[in-house]
Amino acid sequence: MSWLAVAASTVPPESTQQALGYPSLFLLVLIGALVPVVPTGALVSSAAVVAFHQTAPFALGLVFVTASLAAFLGDATLYWLGRRGMRSRNGSRWLEAIRSRAPEERLAQAQERLADHGVTVLVLSRLVPAGRIPVMLACLMAKWPMRRFVRGNFPACLAWAVTYQLIGILGGSLFKEPWEGVVAAVVLTVVISLAPGLWRRVRSAA
Questions:
Q1: What are the C-alpha distances in Å from 90 to residues 35, 85, 87, 101, 146?
Q2: Phi and psi, residue 126, nearest 5°
Q3: 29-53: per-residue pLDDT in tens?
Q4: In whole angstroms, how large is the CA radius of gyration of the chain?
Q5: How far is CA 140 from the centre of its chain?
Q6: How far apart are CA 40 and CA 34, in angstroms?
Q7: Taking a C-beta distance cutoff of 8 angstroms, is the pair 67, 165 a contact?
Q8: Torsion over CA of 191, 157, 150 and 22, rounded to 10 degrees?
Q9: Interior angle at CA 11, CA 164 and CA 22, nearest 5
Q10: Can you give the three-state secondary structure of the chain, one letter per residue?
Q11: Which of 69, 88, 102, 193 could be stapled to 137 by a disulfide with Cβ–Cβ 3.0 to 4.6 Å?
Q12: Cα-flanking dihedrals φ and ψ of residue 10, to 5°?
């Protein structure tokens, strides 16, 4: 961990962190929403840890606004691209990317729950690891209009940002050094993201 200690000793001042951090967080979360391989939850938790240790007012509030807005815009853009792919005779690479991230079993479950509970499922999908894409594809296959998806996705992004920010605040409150809190927050988010998959494997093996 010596390299972490060196990194901590060379942390730039808060003004520089804010000037670089918020635009970087926005861009990375936006990309993560469009390309569902970027660990956006860990990014938000890490940013919350850093904000927790800053003296600047509203630092945590800015992390929340930045993350939720980027997630919302990314989801809306991906859904719009998916709708275009559904209407296109040849589909699109974006639609194919969504389909490739939604296994048939998860998609069938998402379609059933969406038919029964509507927008509520969309809101909860962002809180369930790997739950966002199957539900988004189910919305596309159900031909939800853009307006309906956006109305449901807005509170989903707010709830998602709050959840991962609370994980970061927890990590930041447990350790004095920001880098220690970042490590703890990243580990916790990874555990949370892997737990459902491991549980399904255990159940299928049993």
A1: 21, 8, 9, 19, 21
A2: -75, -15
A3: 999 998 877 788 888 988 888 888 7
A4: 18
A5: 20
A6: 11
A7: yes
A8: -120
A9: 45
A10: CHHHHHHHHCCCCHHHHHHHHHHHHHHHHHHHHHCCCCCHHHHHHHHHHHHHCCCCCCHHHHHHHHHHHHHHHHHHHHHHHHHHHHHCCCCCHHHHHHHHCCCHHHHHHHHHHHHHHCHHHHHHHCCCCCCHHHHHHHHHHCCCCHHHHHHHHHHHHHHHHHHHHHHHHHHHHHCCCHHHHHHHHHHHHHHHHHHHHHHHHHHHHC
A11: 102
A12: -110, 20
Residues in the chain, how many? 206
**Contact, 87 vs 94, CB < 8 A?**
no
pLDDT digits (tens, 9 = 90+) for 78-120: 999 888 887 776 656 777 777 777 778 888 888 888 888 888 8
Q: Identify residue 32 by its one-letter amino acid code.
A: G
Give how far Cα 128 sits from Cα of 20, 25, 83, 123, 189, Å: 30, 21, 23, 10, 12
Q: Can you read off the two tokens belonging to residue 157?
A: 């992004």
